[in-house]
Amino acid sequence: MNKTLLILQREYLIRVRKKSFIIMTFLGPLLMAGLMVVPILLATLQDVGKKSVAVLDETGWFAGKFESGDQMSFIIVDAPLDSLKAQVIDGKFDFLVYIPATQFNLPSNAELYSIKQPSVTVRSYVRNVIKNEVENRKLLASGIDPDLIRQARTTVNVLTYQLGQDGELKKSYTDVQAALGFISAILIYFFIFLFGSQVMRGVIEEKTNRIVEVIISSVKPFQLMLGKVLGIALVGLTQFLLWVLLTLGIYFVLVAIFGGDMVQQQTTISGEMLSQIPDEQIDAVNKGMTEVFEVVRSINFPLVLFSFGFYFLGGYLLYAALFAAIGSAVDNETDVQQFMLPVSLPLILGIVMINFLINNTDSSLAFWLSVVPLTSPIVMMVRIPFGVPVWELALSMAVLVAGFIFTTWLAAKIYRTGILMYGKKVSWGELWKWLRY
Questions:
Q1: 44, 55, 85, 336: most buried by Cβ count inside 10 Å?
Q2: Angle 20-25-29 (CA atoms, 0-180°, nearest 5)?
Q3: pTM surpassing 0.90?
Q4: What's the rounded Cα separation, in Å, for the pair 373 and 398?
Q5: Burial of 421 (0-12, 13-18, 19+ CB in 10 A)
Q6: How many CA atoms lie within 13 A of 256 on its CB side?
Q7: At residue 242, does pLDDT exceed 80?
């Protein structure tokens, strides 16, 4: 056991001291924190001055329809289109909205001219004003009062509840649960391949350099494989934890430095933008934000995080043992493909089945795929946000642990023979013989 710990220590220290590990450990959080902060920073740097918008309306329908606010000032103009375009170029107007008169006097298209790319707010506001006015005109032409249509509009929200055995009601949010399950499954898939492939490359490198001959003169092949797999698992966990801590640290530092101005300006911008939005949409946004907080409270995050850690570690250990066996059976990475695809297929199957599983979390197929250890790290993480009976979760975890032990034993039998095999093209039949030695 002490020799396994020595191998584990060696694998861990070698990798955490590598420049690539140190660079990625710091670069990853910078990129992730940048993704959170840069959009806010860019929003504060954009030109937030009041925009002047000229409106050339050949239909004559939109006089008084465009309301000026703190962000935009609309001016109805009557001049040739080319001269107005020239005024935009000269900077007299920031934007020019051209609404042409069509043959049937029902404009379905408008044109927006500007030197700079128009913001989404400007484009959306202009489009909504024109759309609403055209719809009103059509309704009036048909003898229908537009106010009656607006009064008849109703937003129907279907609330979903889960009933417990004791009659307890619990709100459910399918979209959020599906997104959480999907992201968790993708992350586990990514980490298993990222760190599992490190095990395989490490074995191939040692085999190619003949270092392994020196190592196994002192330790058993099984101890070498186990120490390597566990050591790289610790490297993965170390990097993952550092990514989380550094990302949060960088984010809070940036917010502390720029946060006051950013938040204030962002709040000002948001408030000015909201002033251009109808009250109904603001109410909908506020209702949506309230619902978001309810969704966050409804998710059992401790269970999700514990399950994520367990299935990440269990799935990695299971596949890392198989990857180590593959690495021991080949002489270089070009020979890996013929063995990688069959081993990777269960993981790929889990990813491919995500859409079906989200819509059928309690189906027999979902149950069995979440019990089979080769697919359970992916499939069970998809199911957990929707609620999984405790006995199913316990069964899945127990089978995954048993699968890891069995797979490690199986991979060790290949590893102990393949690690000293050189210059021979290995087939699946040859691997079967090694298993029976």
A1: 55
A2: 140
A3: no
A4: 9
A5: middle
A6: 6
A7: yes
